[in-house]
Amino acid sequence: MSKFAGKTAVISGGAEGIGLSIAQALGDQKMNIVIADIDEANLQKAGSVLIIADYQYKSSFVADQEINLTACLTEIMANVEFK
Q1: Are 3 and 13 in contact (CB under 8 A)?
Q2: Which of 27, 44, 50, 77 lies 20 to 30 Å from 17, alpha-carbon distance?
Q3: Helix or strand holding residue 27 (H, E)
Q4: Tens digits of residue pLDDT in 12-58
Q5: What is the SS3 assignment for 40?
Q6: What letter does residue 16 receive in the DSSP assignment?
């Protein structure tokens, strides 16, 4: 078992490209994954990809590109609950 199993990773820009690839790689390591992105449609598609792979994940749509990172992470993590 991976030393990362059960730990949580927060990935901004996780809806596509490198961010989604990172999410998948961390999912392979049995990590809990939180993906955040400003593209709501791609965020939903990414969620479908992660569901099919049976990864533990949550997603969060970030409407404002200039949002305070600390406030964003606090809000995301307050609503994350994994199995």
Answers
A1: no
A2: 77
A3: helix 17-28
A4: 888 999 999 999 999 999 998 888 888 889 989 998 999 889 988 77
A5: helix
A6: S
d(C-alpha 47, C-alpha 14), whole Å: 10
Residue with tokens 């606090």: 74
Q: Which amino acid is it at 13? A: G
Over the range 21-58, which residues count as b (16 or more CB within 10 Å of their CB) and which as e? ebbbebbebebbbbbbbeeeebbeebbebbeeeebbbb
- The continuous run of DSSP H or E covering 47 comes out as helix 40-52
pTM more than 0.85: no
Query: Which amino acid, one-letter code, is at 81?
Result: E
**Rounded Cα distance, 77 and 8, in Å:** 10
Q: Do residues 42 and 67 touch, judged by C-beta distance below 8 A?
A: no
**Which of the 8 DSSP states describes residue 79?**
T
